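Exercise 7b. Backbone tokens:
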């Protein structure tokens, strides 16, 4: 059996997305792959932990929870040096090398991602001379790179997926030198616009190994199907599949999210809530929508209820 360590940072606000991510990883894995999910959190309720634990019915995995070690420092950085567009939890990924210091390699994933294919080859990447592997962020502006004084030739990377070489990190940053470098950087600027992402790009700089963007397909929903054909991991930046009261462009990665989300306890225990979100979002492709409704209906145990459900929500699509 091959064991893979995956780290997620979450709170009660993103557990729905995290559950879909875990389902997608399990569904796209082979029999000989075992997963240990390391979750760094300061606030996940016992009810939500139980829901996540239920996903073991799909395929067994290990689940470990950790409190952030440097939360006080992160909160100070957050309050003093960020525009506060994102929660303080975005800094928690910076604690990964400290919390999981005894591992060789770990894959960090943002919770608003799903795997649409198996990604075990990611773990086979040779990282002997690198601390992190990540996909380039092609949407970052030249003005931002100039502002943070980052050489464009080095590239700027999205921090939603990070393959971290823990052994290399421990050699490169003994003791607390990593945090000291961050403090030094933040002390010389007013605001860090993209908090942990800017920090990772600045501190690791030429120690980041570029990987194909198919492992971190950002803006996953708004792209055309032909642009996402090779996607292995979708990243729902900007627009989220569970947004309420707003039309979302529908591509194959939108439906991929729902394919996995309907297997979660969140969906099963509150089906009407999420189907209403689907209806509110609107859909120009009635055929795809009806196929999704058909998939959803199979979670309803009684035939009459199942048929009534399909009749109700398929009829709704006529008015979208």
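Sequence design result:
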């Amino acid at each position: 059996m091959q064991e893979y360590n995956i780290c997620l940072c979450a709170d009660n606000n993103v557990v729905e997305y995290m559950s879909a991510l875990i389902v997608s990883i399990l569904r796209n894995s082979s029999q000989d792959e075992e997963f240990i999910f390391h979750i760094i959190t300061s606030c996940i309720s016992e009810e939500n932990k139980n829901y996540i634990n239920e996903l073991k019915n799909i395929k067994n995995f290990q689940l470990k929870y950790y409190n952030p070690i440097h939360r006080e420092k992160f909160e100070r950085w957050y309050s003093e040096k960020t525009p506060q567009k994102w929660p303080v939890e975005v800094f928690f990924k910076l604690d990964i090398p400290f919390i999981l210091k005894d591992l060789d390699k770990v894959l960090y994933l943002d919770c608003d991602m799903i795997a649409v294919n198996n990604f075990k080859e990611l773990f086979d990447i040779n990282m002997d001379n690198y601390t992190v592997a990540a996909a380039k962020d092609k949407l970052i502006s030249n003005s931002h790179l100039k502002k943070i004084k980052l050489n464009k030739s080095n590239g700027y990377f999205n921090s939603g997926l990070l393959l971290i070489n823990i052994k290399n990190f421990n050699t490169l940053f003994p003791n607390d030198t990593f945090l000291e470098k961050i403090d030094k950087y933040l002390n010389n600027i007013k605001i860090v616009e993209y908090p942990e992402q800017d920090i990772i790009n600045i501190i690791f700089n030429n120690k980041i190994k570029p990987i194909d963007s198919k492992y971190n397909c950002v803006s996953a929903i708004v792209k055309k199907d032909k642009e996402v054909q090779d996607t292995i991991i979708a990243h729902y930046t900007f627009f989220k599949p569970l947004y309420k009261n707003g039309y979302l462009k529908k591509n194959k990665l939108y439906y991929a999210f729902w394919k996995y989300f309907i297997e979660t306890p969140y969906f099963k225990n509150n089906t009407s809530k999420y189907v209403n979100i689907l209806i509110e979002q609107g859909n120009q492709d009635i055929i795809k929508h009806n196929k999704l409704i058909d998939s959803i209906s199979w979670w309803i145990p009684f035939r009459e209820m199942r048929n009534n459900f399909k009749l109700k929500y398929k009829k709704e699509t006529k008015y979208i």
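Instructor comment: Residues 240-319 form one domain. The chain has two domains: 2-215, 240-319.
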